[in-house]
């Protein structure tokens, strides 16, 4: 009877050792998986920070380009206004030159007659 109990105890001990080995292997696999997940999380976090900085840089670039565009639009409007003014001045000067030429011709005609 004692031998049967001893054999049962030894079998139970062997079963427990096998179960412990299985649990330890499973635990080691889970620890390795956790480490992989941690590494992936750290990489993802680094990528997120890079993406955030890229976004900040892009926003700053857009703001700079918008400012430059606004400045160029204002310069274009000023230049267009200057062109219109200069065209008016050219027209006035051309008319004055024609009038002066006509007066000169008339004066020459009056003097010759």
Automatic annotation (TrEMBL):
Chain residue ranges for the region called Disordered: 90-113
Here the segments flagged for biased composition (Basic and acidic residues) are 98-113
Q: Where is the signal peptide?
A: none
Recorded GO CC terms: myosin complex
Q: Does the keyword Chloroplast apply?
A: no
User: Which InterPro entries does the entry mention?
Assistant: XRCC4-like_C (IPR014751)
Q: Which UniProt keywords apply?
A: Coiled coil, Motor protein, Myosin
Q: Tell me if Coiled coil is a UniProt keyword of this record.
A: yes
Q: What is this protein called?
A: Myosin heavy chain
Please spell out the taxonomic lineage of the organism that makes this protein: Eukaryota, Metazoa, Chordata, Craniata, Vertebrata
């Amino acid at each position: 009877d004692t031998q049967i109990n001893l054999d049962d105890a030894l079998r139970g001990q062997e079963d427990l050792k096998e179960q412990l080995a299985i649990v330890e292997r499973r635990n080691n696999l889970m620890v390795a998986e956790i480490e992989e997940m941690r590494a992936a999380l750290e990489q993802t976090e680094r990528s997120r920070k890079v993406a955030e900085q890229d976004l900040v840089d892009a926003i700053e670039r857009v703001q700079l380009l918008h400012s430059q565009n606004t400045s160029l639009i204002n310069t274009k409007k000023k230049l267009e206004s200057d062109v219109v003014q200069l065209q008016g001045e050219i027209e006035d000067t051309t008319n004055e030159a024609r009038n002066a030429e006509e007066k000169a011709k008339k004066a020459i005609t009056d003097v010759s007659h």
